[in-house]
Amino acid sequence: MVVTVLIIIYRKPTLSPTSFRHLYEAHVNLVHHLTGDAFPLAHRRTYVAQTTPTAAAPTWPEPRPSGVPASPSPPPPPSSSTWHPMTVANDAPAVFGFDVVSEVTFADDLAYERFVTRIQDPAVKGRLCASAGVFADGAGLAAAVVGDVVETRGAPMSMPVPFGF
Questions:
Q1: Mean pLDDT over residues 81-98, rounded?
Q2: Where is the EthD domain (predicted)?
Q3: Per-residue pLDDT reduced to its tens digit, 122-135
Q4: What are phi and psi of 142, to 5 degrees?
Q5: Taking the domains of the chain in order of start, what are their residue ranges?
Q6: Helix or strand or coil: residue 20?
Q7: Backbone dihedral region of 164: left (phi > 0), alpha (psi from -120 to 50 degrees) or beta?
Q8: pLDDT at residue 64, as a whole number
Q9: Angstrom distance (rounded) from CA 138 to CA 130
Q10: Does domain 3-58+73-148 have CATH number 1.10.1200.10?
């Protein structure tokens, strides 16, 4: 069974989004080099769109539009003197902190375990931590193995709407 891991990374507030992307892409190449045949089948990076920088960061928390619940643990406010607001698709607050979501796919549990073993090797781990320390905010990295995935696609409505909605 395929194993997928989602990784959310926050850039160092002193970096521009462009610099962050350049450094993270170099890091992925380093991971590929150091893990060799244990590298995942795919390593997909989805970068958050960001607008032109403004002079100062907004204060946290921003006022939320009516009906938008507060997140249980908002990201820390940026400490950089230049703020790159996120481009949002709705009325949600533009501050949610992370800069990239990576989706890493392995053929199976064995392939995933092989990769983890390789990156835990002290020499490899040291190089990867040093590389990540250049672009990633120390507390701003989270990874989780994906469980169930549910997807809804836009197809012509051929079924009645359930529950009388």
A1: 56
A2: 12-138
A3: 999 999 999 999 99
A4: -135, 145
A5: 3-58+73-148
A6: helix
A7: left
A8: 46
A9: 11
A10: no
- pLDDT, the chain, mean: 79
54 - beta bridge partners?
83
Q: Name the one residue in this structure whose structure tokens are 């902190």.
A: 97
Residue 10 to residue 98: CA distance in whole angstroms: 4
What is the phi/psi pair of residue 132, to 5°? -65, -30
Q: What is the 3-state secondary structure (H, E, C) of 8-22?
A: EEEECCCCCHHHHHH
Q: Specify the residue for token string 């549910």.
A: 150
Mutual orientation of helices 17-35 and 122-135 as an angle, nearest 10°? 170
- pLDDT, tens digit, for every residue of 139-161? 778 899 998 888 888 866 666 66
Provide the token pair at 131.
Answer: 């590389």
The label of the residue with tokens 């053929």 reads: 107
Instruction: Dig out the tokens for 32 from the structure.
Output: 């590929």
